[in-house]
Amino acid sequence: MNKFLVAILALVILFPFDRVHAAAYTATDVLGQVSSDGSANYTGSSANNGLSAPAISATSSVTGILYHSAVDEVNNRLFIVDGGNKRVLVFQLDSDGLPTDRTADYVIGQANFTASTYAVTQSGLSSPNSIAYDPNNSRLFVGDSNRVLVYDVATSTMTNGMNASYVLGQTTFTGSTGAVTQAGLSGIQALAYDSDSDRLFVGNSWRTTVFDVSTSTMSNGKNASNILGQSSYTSSTVISPPSNTSMLPYDLKYDTDSDRLFVLDGFGRRALVFNAGTSTISNNMAASYVVACQNFVTSCGGPIGQIRSSNPNWLAYDPTNKHLYVGDTYRVTVFDAATSTISSGVNALYVLGQPNYTTSGKNISSGGIEVRGLSIHAGGRKLYVSSYASPRVAIFDITTLTDNEAAVDVLGTYDENGDPTHLRSSYTTNSKGLYYPASVQVDTNNHRIFITEGSNNRVVVFNLNSNNQIVDRTADNVLGQPGFISDESGTASSTMEDPYGLVIDSSNRLYVADSGNYRINVYDASTLTDGEEASNVLLKSSLTTSSCSDIGQNQTCSYYNNLDIDNDHDQLFVSFADEGRVLVFDTSNLVNGMNASYVLGAPDFTSYGDCSDRNSLCEPYDVVYDSNHNRLFVVDASDNRVMVYDTSSISNGMNASYVLGQSTFTSTGYGITDSTLSYPVGAAYDSGNDLLFVSDGNNRVLVYDVQSITNGESAIGVLGQATFTTSSSGATAGALNDPHGLDFATSTNSLYVVDQRNHRMVVYSFLTIATSSLANATQYQDYSASIPAATGSQGNVTYEIYSGSLPAGMTLSGTSITGASTQSGVFNFTIRAKDTVGVSTFYSQPVQYTITVAERGKAGRGGGASLPAIVTAVASSSSTRVTTPVPVLYMPSQIVTLGSPEFLKMFIPLVSAQSMGLGSRSNSVQLLQKFLNNQGFVIAKSGPGSPGNETDYFGVLTQKALAAFQKKNNINPASGFFGPITRGVIWKMINQK
Fold first, then answer.
1. How many CB atoms sit inside 10 A of residue 4's CB?
2. SS3 990
3. Which end of the chain, N or C, is more open, meaning fewer C-beta atoms within 10 Å of its C-beta?
4. In percent, how much of the chain has pLDDT > 70?
5. For 166-178, how does the pLDDT look when each residue is reduced to its tens digit (9 = 90+)?
6. What is the distance between the alpha carbons of residues 125 and 167, in angstroms, rounded to a whole number?
7. What b/e readout covers 962-993, taking b as 16+ CB neighbours within 10 angstroms?
8. Could you tell me which of 923, 931, 930, 921 has the C-alpha nearest to residue 949?
């Protein structure tokens, strides 16, 4: 039992789930649970949107567990052994060997298509697994455990649930006891029919017995006429090592043109060729040739190649081209078996199901197969490949063979629209549903949502509109699978196994934690195609490597990994839950298998985190990066805490700066309050409001205000619960059931929550304020303006100044700004709406506003005339904690003339500004940054603080630029602090002319 389940069981015992769930805040959209009309289904919680396959339940389609098949080329019929449902299905074919429809025409062994009863009777079957067809007399032979039933299946007499005409291996139709005698059979594996001499070959119990089944001599329980593989009819000795007479007959095929019997020897993992005509056959005779093996005395099997197969079990023979088909688990090799050219140890001519002879894993493509039986329609040039785990029959055109060719048709697997598909896996998987999703990533630049699904071994991609809103609930692309109905795992560059975390960087590289393969796949997500190959890999040297490794600087043995990116410094953070550490990779030059640059949570790259300390991690499940403050939040699940690291300077095994969920770095208890956590696993960061969202095992998401942090601080909001002290689960718009991965998009002010046990991803959209502009004002004159009212609230709404300040004399009340400014100048500030819902507080994104106050008497009396258009007053939603810059009229290449009216109007407020230093935040800071940029002391070349992108935050870059200005103007010390001396210098500059 994994750590997560242990923690959940502990919660159930200590904190029983409430019987009634009444969450206060509700989701606004959902993916993974879709109603029939395409609308959101908040009460759905079934895997894959409730689409279930009739895996074992009997129908008129191919279901259950499939074994061998047989072909009637005279009447164009395909007989398929459906062992799981204890029956044989009969499909009509056209003259080319393709099915005329997807529905069986008859069923043998059951009274109807919906029955799957076990029966040892004349009409019933118990464990059918093998089959052969007699084209001369329209008879079907069905191997059923310890007996062979013989049916007259002439088209004129065929009926559902028909009685058998004869039985071999038993004296009556109700006998089922196995026997190693001349008449008895034990553990039948395969059948083959010789249509020239009316002989039936029966592979059973380390031998092949031969029966004369001509219609004139046919009788129940008759004796065999010959035996192969044993010295007597009463012997079933295992002969080891293999010889040219020994066999464990898994499959049989007969070549009537050359009177040869092909035997698939499962013990020797080889195919034996016997000259078994009536004039040449003898008891315990030796084989003439061996195929799929070098010689008669070697037990073959892997390593696979052009000769050998790892686990061959099935055969088919094409009399037209004299080809012998040998079925391995995930491939079929084709050998030249013409009498003039056959030889022992011959190389295969072709391979189906794999791109080459040395590949043997699952091939999830239209050419991929999982072999359980083979048969051929020689006239129609078709090969039928029965599958086991995914009940289907893939049909290949063998007119002209090519390696890894695609199937031309299929019976048994259908897509979500009911159309046949060549993909070899479960058709419960679809483009609307999810199955144990793990993580979510919102790509607001390219308007997409990525969701990992562990149980479907894939990443699904939903397109958004230009406003980053969900367009529909049908996925548009898939990674890790060739299409939406496939769910097979794999180790190739286009496949994955149990993916967990993911993140996309500013270069459109998508990193996916391919947890089951212990690696990170990197995809070029500039343009997406279904099933595309990864372009790079981390933690492994190649994209075909998947083994678990000892921990190190570039390898892992951890199953659960999550990711986040620092685009500013080209750093990828990867958490390793099973190893108690976080690795930091430099992605500026991405190389397969590259070393990590740093490790957190452990002292070095070869050590595990030892838990419960300031410099260690126990089970880090998620990582989320805060670019505003260069902080990394690490969700440490089993220590029930979130560790906060200052990443402005990273060193191996460094201490965390703060901790949430615990009051100290050495406490690890779990709880269900506003300041405690219980097995947290996911996190997301709202950069506009400095909020951290954390999901935990209490079926909730907590919201923390982390503009400044104190250890063990209380959350300000909760999602999924009505209070901080409840933990009930549910499937409604307000409930959660095991929330995992989170992501936040400032452009929509929405939180995206992977609600794992409800098999869905829900969206919480918080309130918003529309963009608008405010009128200019005149000093000492009454002013009144309004901002748009917030929309999307679910509780009580109030408004507040988040950063900057209003002009002195003005106030904000509700959505109205009123008063008379006692100051002149340009005033930048942000306003946000506050939504109080029960015990929780949620916010809109802060919106930037500007009011320009003209000095009284300088721009005309009365009328409120504004100053010349130096600053454009435009409001826009803030996407980061740093407020949105206001465009500046003058760029560094257009330095304002000292003492000019323009200079005076723009920068004279600095003369009366308060002192400023590191950490200051006000509209005066923004004006100072404009002054420095315009005078050539550039804060930053691009991004926050750059010309046209000035902010209200006094940081290190502002300090450096101001110090350079002070040094140039002989201010001593040139400390980068804005005080009276600097104000005086600026005053002299303004008045020098």
1. 19
2. helix
3. N
4. 91
5. 999 999 999 999 9
6. 12
7. bbbbbeeeebeebebbbeeebbebbeebbeee
8. 930
